[in-house]
Amino acid sequence: RGEVVGGVAEATTDDLEHALAAASAAAANWAATPAAARSERLERAAALFEREADTLLALAVREAGKSWANAVAELREAVDFLRYYAQQARGFDPASHVALGPVLCISPWNFPLAIFSGQVAAALAAGNPVLAKPAEQTPLIAAHAVRLLHEAGIPAAALQLLPGRGETVGAALVADARVRGVMFTGSTEVAALINRSLAARGGKVPLIAETGGQNAMIVDSTALPEQVVTDVLASAFDSAGQRCSALRVLCLQQDIADDVLHMLQGALAELRLGNPADVRVDIGPVIDAGARDGLEAHVAAMLAKGARITRLPLPAACAHGTFVAPSIIEIGALSELGREQFGPILHVLRYRASELDSLIDAIDASGYGLTMGVHTRIDETVERVAARAHVGNLYVNRNIIGAVVGVQPFGGEGLSGTGPKAGGPLYLHRLLARTPGPVLADGALAVTDSDETRAADAAFSGFLEWLDGAGRGLLEGDELAALRDRADACRARRIAGLRLALPGPTGEDDSLRFTARGTIAGVADSAAAVLHQVMAALASGNRLLLADRAAARTVQAALPEALRAYVAVDAAWFDKALGAVLFDGSDAEADALQVRVAGRSGPILQLLQPCPDYDLGRLVHERTLSINTAAAGGNASLMAMGA
């Protein structure tokens, strides 16, 4: 902490006003720039990032306290984001892919180049000018990235850097009506504040929020202990535990817990702490004194409760930085944990084999749903966990960090974020005011064959058949023709139940599944509007809870008995656990409802209006599954290729 890396002048109120005016003035020209030209500039920037690798790596190490290996991975991810979004946006047509306008990107300090570049690249690729507010702890590497993007041909007014504190610079930008979209990675609490601020403004201002997680790894008695220990060390202590995806709770089956824990403690003792500029160092400092003090307070509180704690001693040289001793804390129940501890602290929980389902349910009950790991040699256990776990990224027989762009699209659900997943096929489309939706590779798609999917397909087909028969009696004039158009759009855009095979390294199977959000709400005053909401819910595999209004009661009573199992009317719908809210009404009513919805506690809830269709991509969860097939004896599909 005695070394000065650089200086920063934080943005003033006048700076913000000039930047907002410039971004607004540049919006039309940047949106009209051919998508191919925007993509070429992002690809040029990727090449410049690689050319300037020495500077970017040094900044990552010196400013953010990253190890050299982490810095290299960070640069690779930033380059991947630039090229991935450039490729995805290349075919966008400005007539059908309509940009939002100025987008605010608020990025974190733990990935000050990769996440910063990913947010900026996505917004620019979609045709939006960017106001980039990096974390106050890491403005230097962001500034160098912006210089390179400008050198690559991104106009100055289309990308402006506004360093400063979140409470001042960030809050002022979020509240300004000229900002037409917000991308945020950070804490759950700040994401909720941003959501409420946007709701208070009114209008349809998209928020893409990726927040934290109480990430768990489940290890059963069939797992290979040596591999478990290697993967746990990487997952929990790499980057000093300062990853959204980092392992927070290791769940060990009782039968093997003592042996695995003994090996883990021994392996942890071999790690080296210190200045990450030394290539021999494994674990560096946490980001600042506030982070260190919070982590130390947690360890002290657990110790006061009588928890068994293993801690590495801190070398004397660590006194010059904000270091936290890597710690293993044994706990008796998940309920002992409060908020996420964002640092090199691993909690260990023992469980019995008979308690697997209840363990998964307890993990889900935390409300977070970012990453999870499972180590097992039993395929049925993998399927059991995958079916029950509500997480965005599930990793099997490997570590749970280091998601690769386009291979493991990253992002969670519940308290862990709003979706869509970064580095996935839906992301850019959330940054557009109007879009025909993503084009998915047909050859890589498969329908998930499950009872749930088959039942959802039958319900959707049954509804459309009923609508063309007895259901038409609820409609007037040309309402049936309009709903048929909506049905055609639903058929074309429905993705619930699909599995997308993703490219990945040899020895790993990666896929992205689109699953229903569960129960969504619908608020509408006409039979046609209610029927449209029923259609959207069934097309996305969800159940629908209708606000208790006359039209809702009429439609629900008229539905066939088999469909009434999917559609209910409830005066107390607002207080239920929901995945989204569909609303059909005036913009003023939508704004008022959005304020109420944003005021709910718990996960950020999206309010969708038809334009003229509901966005079915926002009514599903994206869940990535990554399986280390080599750990199970090899990839059978590879072995079959030679036959």
UniProtKB/TrEMBL annotation:
Molecular function GO terms recorded: L-glutamate gamma-semialdehyde dehydrogenase activity; proline dehydrogenase activity
Catalytic activity field: L-glutamate 5-semialdehyde + NAD(+) + H2O = L-glutamate + NADH + 2 H(+)
Zinc-finger found in the keyword field: no
The protein's annotated pathway: Amino-acid degradation; L-proline degradation into L-glutamate; L-glutamate from L-proline: step 2/2
GO cellular component, one term: cytoplasmic side of plasma membrane
Highest taxon in the source lineage: Bacteria
PANTHER family: DELTA-1-PYRROLINE-5-CARBOXYLATE DEHYDROGENASE 1, ISOFORM A-RELATED, DELTA-1-PYRROLINE-5-CARBOXYLATE DEHYDROGENASE 2, ISOFORM A-RELATED
Protein name in the entry: L-glutamate gamma-semialdehyde dehydrogenase
Species: Thauera aminoaromatica S2
Upper taxonomic lineage: Bacteria, Pseudomonadati, Pseudomonadota, Betaproteobacteria, Rhodocyclales
